[in-house]
Known about the structure:
The complex is a heterodimer.
Chain A: H1 2-15, E1 21-25, H2 41-47, E2 49-54, E3 57-58, E4 62-65, E5 68-70, H3 72-83, E6 87-92, H4 95-104, E7 109-113, H5 118-123, E8 125-126, E9 131-138, E10 157-158, H6 164-177, H7 190-199, E11 204-213, H8 218-231, H9 237-249, H10 262-272
Parallel strand pairs in A: 2-6, 2-7, 10-11
Antiparallel strand pairs in A: 1-7, 1-8, 3-4, 4-5, 9-11
Chain B: H1 3-39, H2 45-58, H3 61-71, H4 81-106, H5 110-118, H6 123-153, H7 165-176, H8 180-208
Helix pairs in contact in B: 1-2, 1-4, 1-6, 1-7, 1-8, 2-4, 3-4, 4-6, 5-6, 6-8, 7-8
Amino acid sequence: LQENRIMTVTVRFARRSFLTAALLLPAFASFLGSDADAATLEEIKARGYMIVATEDDYKPFEFMEDGKPVGFDNELLEEVRKFVPFEIRQEVIPWTGLLAGVSTGKYDVAVTAAMITKERVKSLDFSMPIADSTHYYVKRKDDDSIKEIKDLSGKTVGVQSGSAQLEKLPELEAMLVASGGTQAARFRDQHDHQSALARGRQARHIRGRLCRLRTDGSGLGRRQGQYRASRGHQRLPCRAEEEREPRQASGEMARPGIPGPAGYVHALIMEAGPRPDMRPAIPEP
Amino acid sequence: MTATAFLTLLNGAGSTLLISGAGIAIGVPLGFVLALIRWARIPVLAQIVALYVSLLRSTPAVTLCLLIFFAVPTLGIEIGAWTAGILTLALVTAAFNCEIWRAGLLNFPAEQLEAARAFGMTAGLRLRRIIFPQLWRASLPGLVNEATLLIKASPAIAVIGVAEITRAATRIGAQTYEPLPPMLAATALYVAIILVLVGLQRLTEKRYGRPEHRA
Lengths: 285, 215
């Protein structure tokens, strides 16, 4: 019975953690508390360029290889470059600066892997979701004390502060109540807990991982409508989405030439250790 | 770590040196001017400087950097990442350097100044001939100390996209999932930079110090 309950919660956990690699739009709240002077699509067309911010250390979405930004979101940006009638100027900036930059209007959009959360929707506009994700824990390969989720009870966890994963911790703790308490140590960023993990100081950390690219969008459609309605903005992403939807329908977004993130995730999970059966199944909608 | 990864780190070291160097080059003289304003008790200006020093000493470099890079453009002034980075480090270090210079000024023997006045030296001449030659020698250890702290505080400017040593190491770690080797290499680079800086201080002290202070 206990086992069943855990599985049920696991599924819920997975379902509720849809992740999107999203185009974030400038927020209303700027640094100074006034309306950010976010450029509209018309203004961008008129001036001839759009400033896009991406991150540099969020593999597989965005990372640096030989000094060049690469990864799934950069490939997405390449696709966007092909059809937009203006120049795209890219700035590479860490997550902390990225959000500040988008909300002050310094960057027109951010193309980055950001999960849509209730908190973020308050200050940022998102495009429609382009991917969903599941949270995983990552442990050292040689750590035999963790074989399944219930083994996590009582271990120390490293989570990126301000991340959507942090918000998910209570759900994990609820899952573990059946098999005992848990405690959480908060590490400042993912690098910190990768190195802490390597040093053996922590058993696991939770991170969103892109699971697979949804080419049909049907599972996310409802959610997308919900967020779009809540913000009601038809500014920058519109054009990109109009163009993207037929591409998705034709399967172009997932054609073999554009490596989907699924391969990355597989590689990562194998490397990181958890058994394949640890991955919570995502039920088809 | 691959050769390209090491080159990335060296590139980062170049950025660290350039930005910190520029910050120090602006911050040390600026701190001196601020210290003079406070020391001379120039009305209004002295109070403003005191406020500036208190504010800047209590502002984390990251916050200041974000503020300069993102808030200043909303006032209509465009500013690049490198300019914002240099400005941040210069403003921060100027506040600390101001206090180092001021400590030297407050400690300056009054009798020397009285003697200089008795000879009819103007304020400018006193500063140039009597105060400054002794002051910089006395302040050098404190200034170099602050410079080393500034170099180690420079990763703060990575937040606006300047890939200095620490950010370069983070990028390599994020790409390879092996964060420790690049971090250790980054540490070695910082140690090397600071050792060179301290070595320069020793050389300067040897060359220009008073004979009894030359060790």
